[in-house]
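hey can u check if this looks right to u? its 201 residues, i copy pasted from the old doc so theres a chance i mangled smth
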Amino acid sequence: MKLSEVDSSKLNNNIIKKIFFNIKKENYKYADYVVIYGCHIKELLNERLQHALKILKEHDYGKIVLTGGIGVNGDFNESEYMKKFLVANNIDESKIIIENESTTTEENNINIMNMLNLNSIQNFTSIALITHEFHLLRIILQWAKILNNNNIYFYYDFVDNTKLSYDKIINTPELIESIRKQLEKTKQFIKEGQYIDINID
């Protein structure tokens, strides 16, 4: 079954897991870029930052890209907030690149692509993407659509200990409804040609 064909009114635990919690982490020791995605909910953003800090302390990397401005529902600049946190935790400020114009995940990716000239890179370049697992689907589908460069390799990395884990979501009606809305949004982006479609079986 294609992702675009999934009936969001008939979500069950198995489908939720297949779609949103089916990402495999790879072991890596180095990334040319570490991209940390912003979030307008500080509690979730802090989870991403704690995980990112662990990654940055344990891995070698070239540059850190902090992405996110003031989102539609936000009241603070996400990338600036992240920068203050990282610098306060002894991360070298000179290694930080700020992308603070975007207000959505989709704008995040387009702005990162343009800032780093990713479609023009001719040497192998690795990029670690750090966020929550349920958020990665949108990121992966859009990158596959907009990026046309086989020299770019992504490591998908996500928060391990989160209040939005699979077990938490499937046992909370409000969170299931949130996942349902995210699926509908994803299907709409596929229909509009902003994302690729994929098989979920």
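The domain at 25-162 is CATH 3.40.50.620 (Rossmann fold).
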